[in-house]
Amino acid sequence: MTWPRSIPLAPRPFPDESVRSWIGRVAARYDLTPPALVAQLADGHSVHVSRLASLDWQEDAALENLLAQATHLDRARIRGLRPIVEDKPVPTHWHRSLLAWCPRCAYEDVARHGETYERAVWRLGCCAACPTHRSVLADVCPACAYGCVEFQAIAGRQRLVCGLCKRPVDLSPDTGQGRGILVDPRSHFELPQCPEWTQLALALQAVLLGLAAGSTSPLWQLDVPASGVADVVRDLAAALLWPGFFGLGPMHDEGAMMAFRDHVFAALAPRIAHEVLGIIASVLTAVAGRPPLRMRAAQVEGLGPSGAAVDLTWFIRRLPADGQQWLKARARGWGPILARAVGDAADIEEQAGAARSRGVSKPGVMVPGYAMRPRSTLTMPAGGSPQGRPRGRRQRFRHRQWCRATCNEDALPRGNPSSWCGGH
Question: pLDDT digit string (tens) for 26-64?
Fold first, then answer.
């Protein structure tokens, strides 16, 4: 069947709707998929789904003219649906390949319009939470917790349906487990789910979304130009996630590191991205002189003491030595304030790490990295041995570390672990 160049049923796009969502709603009126609709309008010439998806971030004059003519819509209105103002020949570094959505928005859409539509910002990796409802976006079916959700035509309307259990997921505002692309059933960084954290993450998200839309606002009085804000955030996210979360090994391969850095937010599940944005926002606000976040009381082992401020010092300490040097080199392009702050923090941590590896510290100062009980604390006086007899395993271990740094290792006790070094 040959379709007319103009179709009678063509809903108008919502102001915040993505291009592909609008095409999907038009196709749903005829119980078609978007590629099938475009193929009918193009006299049987098929169009790959990836070409339709690319309309969300880059211009395609042929497709836009075809859709504008068929729906009686000004092409400028189609162009205005893109959340990113700059056209690119490849997907933007922020572009999320899998669908994420706000369950509350979808639920309200069905109640108000009888169908749901995709917000354009949901496809951006830097959008981890709904700006309206301030809740983290979902990315898996809330019913089965495994299926990937997609838009489908049901009774002439576009609905969100799980591809595995085939249930509509827009009938309830339930967010489900939200495990997503990176299957991790709990918070990786164990930051407090507090209003301050949510406010900081949303504030940084708003800055990034504004920059994608063409804003030129600076970043929180840190002397970072608008063109460099995205680089700062991506560099910090890559340094934070590369060694610990992904376990990708050393950061010596600059090409692999930069590729990971460029697409880090596009690959993150929304919940993990929200946590990362909160951490980065806390670090940047601390550099700007404002109060940072603090770790929760029930802290996961290895991430720092309870109540520790999530500032630049906390951030640098989490990185391996090569990660600290990589971030220090990258920070030279962030502007003088951040470059100096990162450089100073990295230098201090490098000196502390060298002291920890030797097991010694400055005279009269405890060796960093070894937590002692206040009543049994040993000090390191200049030119002498630890004062007092070591108590407990940590004390004995610390004494042995001190002995290795000050005397012949052959003199260390081989028998009773509580005995003193033969030279002291």
Answer: 999 999 999 999 998 888 788 888 899 889 888 899 999
AA letter at 306? S
* Strand 157-162 relative to strand 149-154, pairing: antiparallel
User: 226 or 415, which is more confident?
Assistant: 226
Q: Work out the end-to-end distance of the chain between its first and last CA atoms, rounded to an integer number of angstroms.
A: 97
The tens digit of pLDDT for each residue in 159-216 reads 999 988 888 999 877 655 443 333 333 344 544 456 777 888 999 999 988 888 877 7
CA 294 to each of CA 41, 138, 220, 279: distance values in angstroms, whole numbers, following the listed order: 57, 26, 20, 10
Q: Half-sphere exposure (CA, 13 Å, Cβ side) for 87?
A: 10
The answer to whether the CB of 423 falls within 8 A of the CB of 399 is no
Measure the CA–CA gap between 214 and 227, rounded to whole angstroms: 10
**Closest residue by Cα to residue 255 from 303, 318, 326:** 326
Q: Which of 66, 88, 83 is closest to 75 using CA atoms?
A: 66
Sign of CA dihedral 289, 293, 299, 302: negative
Question: CA 23, 25, 27 angle in degrees (round to 5)?
Answer: 70
Angle at 100 between CA 273 and CA 247, to 5 degrees: 35
